[in-house]
Amino acid sequence: MIKRRLAGTVAIGASALLALTACGSSSSGSGSSGQTTLTMVVPDYGTGPANTTAKYWQAIITAFEKQNPKIKVTFQIYNWDIIDSKVQTMLQNKQYPDIIEGESPLEFAQDGIAYPASKVLSASTYNNMLKLFMTADSYKGTAYGMPFTTSSRTLFYNKQLFAKAGIATPPTTWAELKTDAAKIKQKTGKIGFGLPLGSEEAEAESLLWFLGNGGGYLNSSGKYDINSPQNIQTFQFLNSLVKAGDTEPGPGTQDRTPLWEQFAAGQVGMINGSPALIPIIQAAGKLTSSDWASTDIAGKNGPLSSTLAVADSIVALNTQGHASQIKQFLDFVYQDKYQVQFDKEYDLLPATTSAINALSSDATFAPFLKRLPSGTLYPSTANWQQVDDDIKTTIGSAIGGNPASVLGALQQKATSTS
Questions:
Q1: Looking at residues 327-338, what average pLDDT do you find?
Q2: Integer Cα distance of 31 and 195 in angstroms
Q3: pTM, whole model, 2 decimals?
Q4: For residue 138, which of 113, 111, 120, 117 has the smallest C-alpha distance?
Q5: Phi, psi of 42, deg, nearest 5
Q6: For 167-194, what is the mean pLDDT?
Q7: C-alpha span between 350 and 355 (Å, rounded)
Q8: Structure confidence at residue 181 (pLDDT)
Q9: What angle do CA 297, 302, 306 make, to 5 degrees?
Q10: Residue 142, SS3 per DSSP
Q11: Is residue 418 predicted with pLDDT exceeding 80?
C-alpha cells in the first residue's frame, strides 16, 4: 500500500473513533422510500476535540442532505494510527464503505473494487482536479484516486535574523545559502540552516536537496538512481555546510519536528518546511506573521522549479453500486469554499485548480501554491515503502561519512527488492 500522508497532521482525542450518522443508521443501501445511504471513512486531521475534522464533514453533510434529501451520508472518523487496521477489518468482513479518504487508491483499484474517478465525478469536477496527483493515482492508465488535500515545500526564513545578519533577500543558490547561514551564525549566534536528516523525514529533506542538483530517487526511465553523481555531489555539499558549522549539531540524526520547533522559537535562520510548520510557529508565540516568510527552495544554480508535493486522496468503492449518489456528493464536497475552508483550518493546500486560484492571493499560501502543480512526487514503485524506511534510517550517516558508500548501499538494496 502506498502512503502519502501529509507531513505534520496529527490526531489525538479521548476516543479513538468518532462515528457520526446523519440519519441514525450506519447501513449502506436504498430503503423502501427510495433513499440511499452512503458510508464514508475518513482520518482526523485535527489536534483534539476543539478542531476535529468531524466538524468539517458534518457541516458539509448537513448542507448536502438539505439539497439532496434522497441521499443520506454517514461517516466514521479514525485517528491516523488506527485507520489502516480499521479499513482492513472492514474489507475482511465485507463491510465496504462507499468512500474512503486517506488510504491508497491503488490498492483498491488492483483488487477491482474501486470506481474509476471519471465514474464518480462530473466532467467539470474531474477536469478541475490537479493532474499531477490524478496521474499518480492511476492504475493501468485509469485514474482511480482523487486528491482531497495536498502539500508542498518551501524555504522558511526568519526575517529578524536576516536583518541582524545584514541579509537583504533570501538565497536562491547553494552558494548564497551557505554564505547567509554563516552570517547568521556569526552575527546572531543562532543556527544558520536547519538540516533534519534524522529518521523522522530524511527522505523528504534529502529529495529537496537532490532536486536542487538535478537529481532525485529515480532517473528519467523511472529506475532507482539513488547513488547518481548528482546525488553524491549534493551530500558532499551538505557535508561542507555541516563542517563549516552552519547547521545545527549532528544533522544526520536530527528529526524534523524538534528543529521546526526551534525555528518557531526564533533559533534557526532558515529551514525547508511545509504548511504544517505554520501552526507550530503560531503556537510558539515567538514570531509574528511579519517575522518570517517562505519562498522557493534554493538549488545549486537557482531556485527549484519543482518541489516535493504530496497528497491524501479519496477512493470510491463499487461494491454497493452507488456511483450516481457518490458523484452527487463528491461534486458537492469539491466546491471551492469547502476546499479553501479545509486548507485554512489545517494549513494544507487544495486539490483543485479553481481552489488554488481562489487562494493564490493569500500571502501565506502563495509560495506553496506556486510550485504545487509541477511538484515532484515520491516514487510509486512497488517497493517504495521499504526503500523509504531504509532512507529514513540510513541516509543521515552520509553526513560526516562517505556519501558514495551510503548512497551506493541504499541503491543496491532498492534495486535488489524491486
A1: 98
A2: 57
A3: 0.90
A4: 117
A5: -140, 155
A6: 98
A7: 6
A8: 98
A9: 50
A10: strand
A11: no
Q: Give all domains of the chain, ordered by start, each with its CATH number.
A: 17-151+310-362 (3.40.190.10), 154-307+381-416 (3.40.190.10)
- In sign, the C-alpha dihedral spanning 283, 289, 292, 293 is positive
pLDDT of residue 63: 98
Phi and psi (nearest 5°) for 381? -65, 155
pLDDT of 3 strictly over 50? no
pLDDT at 13: 32
Give the three-state DSSP class for 230: helix
Residue 162 near residue 134 (C-beta atoms within 8 A): no
Q: Calculate mean pLDDT across residues 72-84.
A: 95
**Within a 10 A sphere around the Cβ of 7, how many other Cβ atoms?**
20
DSSP assignment string, 307-318: -BEEEEEEEEBS
Tell which residue, 279, 302, 245, 264, has the closest CA to residue 157: 264
Place of cell 521499504: 386
Residue that has been written with the C-alpha cell 448537513 in this structure = 62
The answer to whether the CB of 371 falls within 8 A of the CB of 152 is yes
**Cβ–Cβ under 8 Å, residues 189 and 195:** no
Interstrand relation of 71-78 and 146-152 (parallel, antiparallel or unpaired): unpaired
| C-alpha closest to that of 134 among 385, 356, 351 | 351
Q: What is the C-alpha separation between 94 and 385, in angstroms, rounded?
A: 27
pLDDT band at 11 (very low <50, low <70, confident <90, very high): very low
Distances (CA, A) of 294 to 38, 94, 187, 290: 41, 47, 22, 11
Give the burial class of 122: count Cβ atoms within 10 A of its Cβ; 0-12 exposed, 13-18 middle, 19 or more buried: middle
pLDDT at 196 over 90: yes
